[in-house]
Amino acid sequence: MNKFILNCAVTGAIHTPTMAPYLPIKPTDIAAQAIAAAQAGASTVHVHARNPETGMPTGNTDIMGEIVSTIHAKCDVVICITTGGGMNMTVDERVAAVPVFKPELASCNLGSMNFALFPVLEKINEWKYDWEPQYLEMSKDFIFRNTFADLERILDVFEASGTKPEFEAYDIGHLHNAHHFYNPSF
User: Which residues contact 110 (CB under 8 A, 6 or more apart)?
Assistant: First the structure.
């Protein structure tokens, strides 16, 4: 079989705790699931941090540090820190962990896009946390921003940190954006 990379994202940022009852939100649980994914064969683990009290996506580098250090202490998997963050974060908040932890990989969403999660609101009557319905409702009028200027900023931080981009393409236009930013030095 040809070699391949299996990347496991154990949390993501668009789902809320009510939508997925097994979604880890505590740093120890996120790290444990990442370690289990590595033990099951994942080559890399894509890590998002969440507020351990509410489950909301967060750019808090202390929380990310707890996750990263726990994973590093227990296995030798490649850690891919997210720069997707969450709908509640600025680009600077989304990329803040990269210069702090200098991961081998970090995600780079290749363009702006819409996340239409608001239809889930009709399917759930009880929420674990008050922030969840508003978070999903805001997706009706939200553009996940990744302009060319944003991407330049993110890729500059990667280069300064010695971090390789894990490019995420959600449509054909994103492939054209990747070509625009193609840099053989990565």
Answer: 146, 151, 167, 168, 169, 170, 174, 175, 177, 178, 181
Q: How far apart are CA 77 and CA 116, in angstroms?
A: 32
Q: Is 175 exposed, middle or buried (0-12, 13-18, 19+ CB in 10 A)?
A: middle
Mapped onto helix, strand or coil, the DSSP state of residue 162 is coil
| DSSP structural state of residue 163 | P
What dotted CATH number matches 7-115+143-179? 3.20.20.70
Task: Give domain limits for the chain.
Answer: 7-115+143-179
Task: State how far the Cα of 148 lies from the Cα of 172, in Å rounded to an integer.
Answer: 16
Strands 57-58 and 49-50, sheet pairing: antiparallel
* Dist CA 59 CA 62 (whole Å): 9
Task: Report helix, strand or coil for 59.
Answer: coil
- Among 108, 95, 85, 113, which residue's Cα sits nearest to residue 167? 108
Cα–Cα distance, 129 to 147 (Å, whole number): 31
Instruction: Give the helix, strand, coil percentages of the chain, each rounded to 5.
Output: 40, 15, 40
Give 10-residue mean pLDDT values along the chain (186 residues). Answer: 87 91 96 97 96 95 98 96 89 96 96 91 95 94 94 96 95 93 69
pLDDT of residue 172: 94
Query: What pLDDT is stored for residue 185 in this prediction?
Result: 63
